[in-house]
DNA sequence: GGCACCAGAATATGATCAAATTCTCAGGTG
DNA sequence: CACCTGAGAATTTGATCATATTCTGGTGCC
């Protein structure tokens, strides 16, 4: 008992200082955002316990969080599933994304540094490459990264949080559409956004963002309509 | 014929059949919205287990949900507390509330029935009474009810959900300010909103809502600044 | 003032109970 | 005779709890 803890060598190679429920949350979140889960698919607690090799309580807590995020859906009876978006949902998401993300772009414009713009360029290049090679997973990751990185400079944690949750809602549907129609078909206004950032023109950034959001979401609407 | 199944549309209206974690969530949510919890106050799992007479797992899940809602805050170490809003947070909340709630008012205007308007009038009368008698708790409840009831007619579940979460964020601070400055001091544009609804004028409703939101939030800003 | 120890709270596991869906098997009908 | 139908069993899955383990923060001693 005197041997409390090995004090100095406590630096474990294990970077996972995070609690289990947090790790499970991150993993599940990524699976939803980047499309390993299909809309309509049932999500079972015990299934995740096996898949993610975690205990029951952490999985439970992660699922509750994701439900609150709108990323998962509680189906009245005790079942949980990935939401299937309808035209009505998409219309609301378009409005919310336009107002919130345009404002984030506006705010980021006046605060972002030249070095940070270059970082966005790097992400956008990776995005272009993913689009060119038809790498759907890469496209989803890089596209999300671009927006998230931009918003991180807006100094608006609450608005960023709202935007993040919106992405969680349409992530699975985005995956479906880009899987079906391919990555090339998606519009991409990121170049315009980067231009606006360089010129430090908030309204131009907001406008470019509005187009990026609207065209992207409209594409999802069309893609899902085709699917029916 | 080959259809799987979905014949029994047995709609269960069993109210007492809610799971424990849902009940705990609702209770805690109400406590936060209507100010039984003070900003900065620590929230412990075991404390809630005793107070709400629930098991540990349900309490845990409810807390996770509330954290995801932004109603509670995870303090890095394993502590959870009620968030304390700063001027920056309030500024973001004002923007988000204005855009989202004005849109909800706009959408509700064209869909709400005369009978439903009367229901709002009833709520607003109760609100006036609470203001007149200085009933802080009643003021908070009726004010929330008015907005929620209005938004329920907008046929926009996602936007309503976002608005709901915003209320959870500033609920505790609203309580602090109204407790300190009294209920009379709060502006109230609900009469203008009701007028706009009767005239079926969406833009007028949105404008009245914008004033209600802005003046109310500005009042919170002033109240918190005085507190410091 | 720093360090070891301790109390208490949070995290995480597995077991147990309850509910719901699915499966199966008769029985009846065209 | 084949097929639809439905009641009930069986299985899967969710909800809850009791308990063990780990971590944090404070306290008292040197």
Give an account of the 3D structure:
The structure is a homodimer of 228-residue chains. In chain A, strands 1-3-2 form a three-stranded antiparallel β-sheet. Chain A is globular and about 50 Å long. In chain A, a hairpin with a 5-residue loop joins β2 and β3 (80-81). By secondary structure, the first copy, chain A, is mainly alpha-helical. Chain A folds into two domains: 15-81, Orthogonal Bundle (Arc Repressor Mutant, subunit A), CATH 1.10.10.10; 87-227, GntR ligand-binding domain-like (Four Helix Bundle (Hemerythrin (Met), subunit A), Up-down Bundle), CATH 1.20.120.530. Chain A has helices spanning 20-33, 45-51, 56-69, 87-109, 114-133, 136-151, 157-181, 190-199, 202-227, and strands at 42-43, 73-74, 80-81. In chain A, α2 (45-51) packs across α3 (56-69), α5 (114-133) packs antiparallel against α6 and α8 (190-199) packs antiparallel against α9 (202-227). Helices cover 68% and strands 3% of the residues of chain A. Chain A contains nine helices and three strands; from the N terminus they run αβααββαααααα. The interface between A and B is medium-sized, with 28 and 28 residues. Chain A binds a DNA duplex (30 and 30 nucleotides) through α2 and α3.
């Amino acid at each position: 008992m005197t041997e409390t803890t090995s004090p100095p060598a406590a630096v474990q190679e294990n970077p996972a200082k995070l609690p289990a429920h947090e790790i499970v949350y991150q993993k599940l979140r990524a699976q939803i955002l980047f499309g390993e889960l299909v809309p309509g698919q049932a999500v079972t607690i015990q299934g995740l316990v096996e898949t993610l090799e975690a205990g029951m309580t952490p999985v439970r807590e992660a699922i509750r969080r994701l439900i609150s995020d709108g990323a998962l859906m509680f189906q009245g009876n005790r079942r949980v599933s990935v939401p299937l978006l309808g035209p009505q949902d998409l219309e609301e998401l378009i409005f919310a994304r336009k107002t919130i993300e345009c404002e984030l772009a506006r705010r980021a414009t006046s605060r972002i540094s030249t070095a940070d713009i270059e970082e966005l360029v790097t992400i956008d290049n990776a995005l272009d490459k993913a689009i060119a090679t038809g790498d759907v997973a890469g496209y989803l990751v890089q596209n999300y990264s671009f927006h998230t990185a931009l918003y991180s400079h807006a100094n608006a944690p609450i608005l960023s949080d709202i935007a993040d949750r919106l992405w969680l809602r349409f992530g699975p549907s985005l995956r479906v559409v880009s899987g079906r129609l391919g990555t090339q078909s998606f519009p991409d206004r990121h170049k315009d956004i980067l231009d606006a950032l360089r010129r430090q023109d908030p309204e131009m950034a907001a406008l470019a963002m509005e187009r990026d959001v609207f065209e992207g979401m409209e594409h999802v609407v069309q893609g899902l309509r085709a699917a029916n």
